[in-house]
Design a protein that fits this description.
By secondary structure, this protein is mainly β. It has strands at residues 25-60, 67-69, 72-82, 86-122. It has a four-stranded antiparallel sheet with strand order 1-4-3-2, with no helix packed on it. The two termini are 53 Å apart.
């Protein structure tokens, strides 16, 4: 009888890999706005003006310029009068005194703030889905 070679069967294994998306958690983010009343303060400055009319009634040769003396602005008011000749008469001066005043004020203001609230929940596996 002819000699038979021993035959060894060759077996090969293979693997197939599949991936699928599975939701494990859900996250919901929303914002919440709150208000807070706070007191703000600021320094406000104002200038008060005092106007005084000072009669002069003096003849002059030319119109004087506006000038400042000791913190007072002097604005001359002139008038031409007709006599036999024309003369310049200083009728009055307007004295303007400026006073700077600083006062602190406090005003209530409403400020808004937003806060993020995050809810995180585990998702229960779907019983119809097969685990791999």
């Amino acid at each position: 009888m002819p000699e038979k070679d021993d035959v060894l069967p060759i077996i090969e294994e293979s693997v197939t890999l599949e991936k699928r998306d599975v939701v494990t958690e859900r996250v919901r983010v929303h914002t919440r706005t709150t208000t807070e009343d706070e007191l703000v303060s600021a320094a406000l400055e104002r200038t008060d003006v005092e106007v005084t009319r000072v009669p002069v009634d003096r003849e002059i040769d030319a119109a004087p310029p506006i000038r400042t003396e000791g913190g007072v602005t002097i604005i001359p008011v002139v008038e031409e009068i007709l006599v036999v000749e024309k003369r310049l008469v200083l009728r009055e001066e307007i004295h303007v005194r400026q006073t700077a005043i600083t006062e602190n004020v406090e005003l209530p203001v409403t400020l808004r703030k937003q806060h993020a609230v995050i809810d995180q929940r585990d998702v229960a596996p779907n019983p119809n889905e097969e685990e791999t």
